[in-house]
Design goal:
Length: 233
């Protein structure tokens, strides 16, 4: 019996190490619809890069050995994976990703807002990183969905895949956008919406959002694992 207990403990003690290969798969879905002008696009991309470089966020990404993907979205049939999955093993990887985001070209300028279509495209990316423990879509947007599948219609598929959706609502021209995202877009345990009153407010708010969904959640997961390992001793 003692030998069996030791064998079980050894197998369980290896689980955190294997899982640590990827604690987080994160899709960064950025709105590039017609309501976003060239300056506002630049603010989004630079602000997102700066948020990833934040010491708290970058450290959490490295600890999680995160996989991160950049998706730009606009109207129906106008969403693309701009940067495929990048594995974050070091601070150098974080810097390389941040630079790639800063340099990413904008694919569209004058089209509608299809939030549901963006969620569907993001959902299609997760089978490639199915080894990751958490799957999160980070949606940035400044308007209501007005084309394509409704975001609420995607909720079932997201739930089945174990995907959490968080959002940042840029309320520069839509003061009720936070409530809309809360009711129609976000899903999953602990899902949340962060509000940016304008595009100028975006950099500080996206940093806050990344700290919450990356750093705090990663720390909570590691604490949970530590307790589980300690209970077996």
């Amino acid at each position: 019996m003692r030998v069996l207990q030791l064998l079980v403990f050894s197998m369980l003690s290896l689980w955190p190490l294997r899982s640590a290969a990827c604690d987080l798969a994160l899709v960064l879905a950025v709105d590039v619809s017609g309501s976003v002008d060239a300056e506002e696009y630049r603010i989004q991309m630079d602000g997102l890069a700066a948020g990833l470089r934040d010491g708290v966020v970058s450290e959490a990404l490295v600890k999680a050995r995160a996989q991160v993907l950049l998706l730009q979205w606009s109207g129906e049939s106008r969403q693309e994976v701009t940067l495929p999955w990048a594995e974050i093993r070091s601070f150098g990887d974080v810097e390389a990703l941040a630079r790639a985001i800063e340099q990413a070209p904008r694919p569209w300028r004058n089209y509608s807002t299809a939030v549901g279509e963006a969620l569907l495209l993001a959902l299609e990316q997760f089978p490639a990183v199915k080894h990751c423990k958490r799957r999160v879509i980070d949606v940035s947007g400044d308007g209501f969905s007005n084309e394509g599948v409704e975001p609420r219609e995607v909720q079932g598929a997201l739930a089945a895949a174990g995907v959490t959706v968080n959002a940042i609502a840029i309320e520069q021209s839509e003061p009720d956008l936070t409530a809309y995202f809360f009711e129609n877009v976000i899903r999953g345990e602990g899902a949340f919406v962060v509000t940016a009153s304008s595009f100028l407010d975006y950099p500080s708010r996206i940093r806050k959002k990344l700290v919450r969904e990356v750093a705090r959640q990663t720390a909570a997961l590691q604490t949970e694992r530590g307790r589980a390992a300690a209970s077996l001793q």
